[in-house]
Design goal:
Blueprint (H helix, E strand, L loop, with lengths): L3 H24 L5 E2 L1 H10 L10 E5 H10 L5 E5 L8 E12 L2 E15 L3 H13 L7 H17 L7 H14 L6 E4 L10 E2 H4 L3 E5 L2 E5 L3 H9 L21 E5 L1
Parallel strand pairs: 2-5
Antiparallel strand pairs: 1-2, 3-4, 4-5, 4-10, 5-6, 6-7, 8-9
């Protein structure tokens, strides 16, 4: 069993960070919304997923660049991820860290840039192929069946230079560049490192408020569609044995201050 009290301390610290980021966004008229597990937690638990501490927000790409320019804090700093193929932002605590056995972990928040995409069948095909390379799979059987077919195909093609991660990203970028006037869908940027879940603009905008812990934050307009595309059966709780912090599943962990 993990240390629930320590996890709650980390959650409270990250909530403070989120409020600070949102204050900057509101002051500078920047668009943001709760995303991924944070949005799931808001809908299903009205706050954090009890066994998780992640906070994720999404922002239009140009807004993330502006946030990087204007965000100033004595306690936190914003920076781009350094991991290859994972191009998004993190806000990191300057003073707090998590000690996990002998490992030091950041106290951070993820900011995922999003952009518009055209309605392109070829784009969706390339994205599906890219997702297979990343071994991401949906939870319903029809797609799993189709993926089993595609997996055998991709194992052959991915050995060639034509379907490397770099080439796939470049092709997705070219489709977006050539169809820049078509703005039918919104998803993560092509180099963010994630599968592109395509939402219609009306499924996200206009944004609406949702309660997360003790504060209301911006959220996509159609919560059901947004979360179903991300998690499908998002209202179903995982088995009890899987309700453990993903980052601290093994070993002791503790929030500390420098």
């Amino acid at each position: 069993m993990y240390n629930q009290e320590e996890l709650k301390k980390i959650q409270r610290k990250k909530l403070e960070m989120l409020k600070d980021i949102v204050q900057c966004c509101e002051k500078n008229h920047l668009i943001y919304w709760l995303d991924s597990g944070t949005l799931l937690g808001a809908v299903r638990h009205q706050g954090f997923i009890p066994w998780d501490d992640d906070i994720d927000i999404a922002m239009p790409l140009e807004e993330t660049k502006k946030l990087e320019r204007v965000y100033r804090s004595e306690d936190y700093q914003i920076e781009k991820t350094k991991e290859e193929g994972m191009n998004f932002y993190k806000v990191i605590s300057k003073k707090d860290f998590i000690r996990k056995d002998q490992e030091i972990l950041y106290v951070d928040i993820d900011i995922f840039p999003v952009q518009y995409y055209p309605n392109s069948f070829f784009l969706k095909f390339l994205n599906s192929f890219y997702r297979l390379r990343k071994n991401r799979s949906e939870k319903f059987q029809v797609k799993l069946f189709l993926e089993n077919i595609f997996i055998n195909i991709k194992r052959h093609f991915e050995k060639t230079k034509y379907f490397s991660d770099e080439v796939l990203q470049k092709r997705i970028y070219e489709i977006c560049r050539k169809n820049s006037e078509q703005k039918e869908y919104i998803s993560y940027t092509h180099d963010c490192g994630f599968h592109l879940y395509f939402w219609k603009e009306t499924e996200i905008f206009p944004l609406k408020k949702i309660k997360f812990e003790d504060t209301y934050f911006q959220a996509p307009n159609n919560l059901h569609v947004y979360l179903k595309k991300l998690y499908y059966s998002y209202q179903e709780l995982p088995p009890i044995k899987k309700r453990i912090p993903p980052h601290y599943s093994k070993g002791d962990f503790k929030l500390e201050t420098r």
